[in-house]
Design goal:
Helix content is about 60%, strand content about 20%. It has about 200 residues and is an alpha+beta fold. The termini are far apart.
């Protein structure tokens, strides 16, 4: 009998411990389930991240390819510009390109510098009338108007060098349009020899 009472007392004292263990087991199971859910969520996020990284890498590679193509195009354009410049510089006459209606010098060749005595910095953005005598301003204005209206034109005039010398030239020009902007460009031929020959014939 004493043994039986002792056993019952033992069961009573250990029963709450079993209940606690059972509760803890359930809590542990719930925690494991929550952890599993979190792991699945993290895996989904990692998969999205990997996908984003792959898209970013693909976009970066495409951008690099486009950049290489752009660099090649720029290099080709520079070569073309250098080639065009070399052709213009080899002309035996003055070459000019003016903006319109501003009439500012945009491009020229070496002959323009050497014949009139100006440096490249001095020629940049020069007004067209800067190279002509004041008494011929009306002639030049009319000639430019003709070029812009008809598409081409020519005129005989005197150009003034930096040191004040006056040289007879025959100029021909055409209208030119690029990217919505208007220009006129052409050449000026030194006709000093022709003028001297004409004077000799008259004498």
């Amino acid at each position: 009998k004493e043994y039986g009472l002792f056993y019952e007392d033992l069961l009573m004292t250990t029963k709450p411990t079993y209940e606690e263990l059972e509760q803890r087991a359930k809590e542990l199971e719930q925690a494991e389930e929550a952890l599993q859910d979190k792991n699945e969520e993290y895996e989904a996020l990692n998969e999205e991240l990997r996908s984003s990284v792959e898209e970013l890498q693909a976009a970066t590679e495409e951008l690099q390819a486009q950049n290489e193509e752009l660099q090649q195009a720029e290099a080709a354009l520079q070569q073309e510009q250098l080639f065009s410049k070399s052709i213009i510089d080899s002309l035996p006459n003055i070459f000019f390109l003016y903006s319109y209606p501003e009439c500012k010098l945009i491009s020229w060749n070496k002959r323009h510098e050497t014949d009139l005595g100006y440096t490249a910095d001095e020629l940049k953005d020069r007004y067209v009338m800067d190279f002509h005598t004041p008494e011929n301003n009306e002639l030049i204005i009319t000639a430019i108007k003709t070029v812009m209206e008809a598409g081409y034109g020519s005129a005989e005039d005197v150009l003034v060098t930096k040191d004040g010398r006056k040289i007879p030239y025959f100029s021909s020009a055409v209208r030119f349009e690029s990217k919505g902007k208007l220009y006129f460009m052409g050449i000026c031929e030194n006709i000093t020899d022709r003028k001297l020959a004409e004077e000799a014939l008259r004498e």
